[in-house]
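PROTEIN DATA CARD
Card holder: LHFPL tetraspan subfamily member 2 protein
Chain length: 228
Origin: Spheniscus mendiculus
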Amino acid sequence: MCHVIVTCRSMLWTLLSIVVAFAELIAFMSADWLIGKAKPSSSEDVDNRTGGSQEPYHPTLGIYGRCTRISHMQLARRDTLCGPYAENFNEIASGFWQATAIFLAVGIMILCAVAFVSVFTMCVQSIMKKSIFNVCGLLQGIAGLFLILGLILYPAGWGCQKAISYCGPYASAYKLGDCSLGWAFYTAIGGTVLTFICAVFSAQAEIATSSDKVQEEIEEGKNLICLL
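Structure generated from the sequence above:
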């Protein structure tokens, strides 16, 4: 018989698992890993209302994508174009970034699988007599290790030609040059930290759903058990 068990700790773990998976996925897909050095507006890019030239803009570069500004013939009309600069995996700018993409992709796939399974932990608390929370926590720990490897290798690729074109000639491995780190990199780091927190917190979720109070509710014949 299926017992629906909902506790504060199990729900918090489920929500955190979903948030972490989405945060890492969004960061991976974003082009805002590196913020390039300022590009001056061309002499044609003039604001019609003020007659002055507009402020310089900062192109951004991701693991496989980029955002840059495209100028049109009309005055003061400029569009920001974002998309992948690499049409396939081999065209990613650096071998280190290729490794980063692999490690991050594997970690994110594991996190997405755990996030999907976590939704069903209200009804299913064990698989083959093993706690589903402990299994998911172990998987989250493994995913966190993949994410760490990816984030460690990523700065090693700052010396590639693509990064130098955005960050200037002084850019090299683990040296940003004229670039700065974008929100996507910090989001990936924050998501990695939360991944390990989720892995640890899964044990608390398991304790909460197997507590004596829950067992008493089950023995009383209740199918829906909600504990704060």
